[in-house]
Amino acid sequence: xxxxxxxxxxxxxxxxxxxxxxxxxxxxxxxxxxxxxxxxxxxxxxxxxxxxxxxxxxxxxxxxxxxxxxxxxxxxxxxxxxxxxxxxxxxxxxxxxxxxxxxxxxxxxxxxxxxxxxxxxxxxxxxxxxx
Length: 131
Hints:
This protein is an all-alpha fold. Helix content is 97%, strand content 0%. It starts with a helix and ends with a helix.
C-alpha cells in the first residue's frame, strides 16, 4: 500500500508540474503574440502611405486593363473581317496571277504563230490598211 500511495503522489506532482508548464507556455505564447501584433501595427502605421499608393495603382491598373479588354473586344471583329478580306484578296490575286500567266502564254503562242506565217500576218493587217 505504501508504494501505491507514493506512486499516486508522484503522479499528482507530475500532473501539477505539467499544468504549470502549460500555463507558462500559454502565457509566453500570448505575450509573444501581443508583441508580434504590436510590431505589425507599428509597421502598418509607418508604411501606410505605401499601402495606399499600391492600392491606388492597383485600381488604376485594373481600370486600364478593363479599358484595353473593351477595346480589344471592339477591334476583334474588324481584325477578323480584315483577315478574311486579305485571304480573299490573296486567293483572288493567286487566281488573277494564274489567269494572267495563261493569257501571256496564249499571247506568246499566237505571236510565234504569226511571226512564223508572215502571210497570215499580212491578211490580218489588211483591215487596218483599208481604214
